[in-house]
Specification:
By secondary structure, this protein is an alpha/beta fold. The protein is 43% helix and 16% strand. It contains 11 helices and 10 strands. α5 crosses α6 (150-159). The chain starts with a strand and ends in an 11-residue tail after the last helix. The structure holds 4-(N,N-dimethylamino)cinnamoyl-COA.
Length: 256
């Protein structure tokens, strides 16, 4: 069985985790399929936005505990376990995590590696690794802290408690909550909106926002301005501004 189902709707690529018997736990096989699939679509100019999702009741219950359980530290270090997952964070196309139901451990971390997290009303987030005698290992301690601040991150990671969609939205983990009914349609509408903009502008915006997490304000603003200037060398800038002046919808280069 395929662990990930890929489906393209217009300019939006939907990657649906599909390992229902293990609540979409992230086995090596599943991650291999997800990573290679996403990297291929990332390079495809017909894809302007990616959605990663699960199903109505679970997004993903985390790294595969059964696969990890018997490993020792030597194996983990030798394999540099989880290191390759960072390839998701390197993708240039905007990624939306559409979370309905559980997003625990690596599932929550996968969502945080995405650019936007939309949650259904029934979404539940958590980093329960502490209950297993470990800590988040796919960026959770770092990304959660950057998103919600030290105090909340400590509370969530040290207690391993559940975080409801409402709380996740309030503390800035989630971008927006949509009703459970027609959740995917709401997400798709947002994704279509993003996907129809200029891809080069989208990639540049994503890169610039991510840079703000790595750099101070002054150099970050310089970085932004340089990329802003460089966009004036793109046909999409010409088209976008000309269309505004002529009061028509822009036809970005994506549609070649
Ligand atoms: N891995 C493997 N199988 C899982 C799983 C997981 N994460 N989560 C659920 N399953 C499996 C269950 O074992 C069960 O399989 P069978 O018994 O039917 O064979 C099936 O999915 C259905 O699960 P439940 O029967 O438990 O379903 P419930 O609805 O009762 O409960 C639940 C749902 C999500 C509350 C519960 O399944 C649960 O608590 N799951 C574990 C959630 C969790 O702890 N996630 C964090 C995973 S650990 C590191 C290395 C590793 C890590 C960190 C650092 N370093 C290298 C530094 C760990 C990372 C993680 O993500």
């Amino acid at each position: 069985m395929m662990n990930v189902l890929f489906k393209q709707i217009d300019r939006v690529l939907i990657a649906q985790l599909n390992r229902p018997k293990a609540l979409n736990a992230l086995s090596s096989e599943l991650m291999y399929e997800l990573l290679t699939g996403l990297e291929n679509y990332d390079a495809d100019s017909s894809v302007g936005c990616i959605i990663i999702t699960g199903n109505d009741t679970f997004f993903c219950a985390g790294a595969d505990i059964k696969e990890m359980a018997s490993k020792n530290a030597t194996q983990m270090i030798e394999e540099d376990y989880f290191n390759h997952w960072e390839r998701i964070a390197k993708l240039k196309t905007p990624i939306i995590a559409a979370v309905s139901g559980y997003a625990f451990g690596g599932g929550c971390e996968l969502a945080m590696m995405s650019d936007i997290i939309y949650a259904s009303e029934n979404a539940v987030f958590g980093q329960p690794e502490i209950k297993l005698g470990v800590i988040p290992g796919i960026g959770g301690t770092q990304r959660l802290t950057k998103l919600v601040g030290k105090s909340k991150a400590m509370d969530i990671i040290l207690t391993g408690r559940d975080v409801s969609a409402i709380e996740a939205n309030r503390i800035g983990l989630v971008s927006k909550i949509f009703p459970q009914k027609d959740f995917m349609q709401h997400v798709l509408d947002q994704a279509q909106k993003v996907a129809n903009y200029s891809k080069v502008a989208l990639k540049t915006a994503k890169e610039t926002i991510n840079q703000s997490l790595e750099t101070g304000l002054k150099s970050g603003v310089v970085f932004e301005r340089k990329l802003f200037h460089s966009l004036f060398n793109t046909p999409d800038q010409q088209e976008g501004m000309q269309a505004f002046i002529e009061k028509r919808i822009p036809q970005f280069n994506n549609f070649n």
